[in-house]
Amino acid sequence: MKSNPFPKPSAKPLSQPTIKAAKTKVPVAPAVRLETIGPEEAGQRLDNYLLRWAKGVPKSHVYRIIRSGEVRVNKKRAEPTTRLVEGDVVRVPPVRIAEPAQIAAANSAQTKSRAQGFSDKMPILFEDEALLIVDKPAGLAVHGGSGIALGVIETLRITRPELNFLELVHRLDRDTSGVLMLAKKRSALVEMHRQIREGHTDKRYYLLAHGAIDAGPGTMQLKFPLHKYLLPNGERRVKVDPDGLPSHTALRVVKKLQQGDVAISLAEAQLKTGRTHQIRVHLQKLGHAILGDDKYGFEDADKRMRSKRLYLHAHLAGFTHPRTGEKMRIESPLPAEFAAMMQSFEQ
Predict the structure, then answer these.
(1) Which residues contact 104 (CB under 8 A, 6 or more apart)?
(2) pTM value?
(3) I need a labelling partner for 217 at 20 to 30 A (CA). Which of 76, 152, 256, 329 fits?
(4) Is the pLDDT of residue 24 over 50?
């Protein structure tokens, strides 16, 4: 099944709204809770399970109680990324839960208006009873967090209240645009996670990189091991490290553009593994950082070129439909900023 054509995403990165917490007391949950995972919860990551259960609890606090060992799965410490299995027993320590009035405040008329504005700039590429696939703009996070009240998932839950279940199948960096899949059924989410875990999906990105990449006539296989770490301010970073996790990106150069002594390359990156910031760090290691990358890029060169965003776009997702078994290929058009940047080199 092919996706229908939709308008291109907005060329302007979206600013994130903030919501001031209501100054009301919040009740404390019973001392320690032991939650048994049922079939509807099975397959979820531990952090996502806790975030949905502990409404109103700051995301940073949820991660802290996991890492400190206060949260246990079957009496053992667990990672935020641990996949829960039916029958698992999760120990949850006392946490402060938001009152209904606070939750209602988050769904105020002002918040709904902001969510609708985001939704209007996020075209639907495909939708049926199992999946919702959108074209995420650059600048919009996939979920809320520290300092971010609305992400894609919060936006869609507000603007699509008729959906009883809606979860992210995968994630994109805040500044990356393109194809983003969400599941409308628990069974669809579990099946899509299986396909991703077993390497049965095809995820491809277009990118603009600094310099003329010499990839030869074929495809480059980038296999740099990656290690995640935290900066002193708590911000997450990734670096190439021999002791890191194996990662694999297939890179194909589509076009090289030159203007005086400055060159850029349009390339397609195919993910073979899905590590955090994988494409961005692999291109940095290659010596051809992605344009507009404020974490791993070339700041001075980006300023000279007036890069207005991260030039990384998820343009294709290939997978098997979780219900029908049909082979799917969902595509997103190249954003206007890419065309404008390349045109500036062709003048």
Answers:
(1) none
(2) 0.73
(3) 329
(4) no
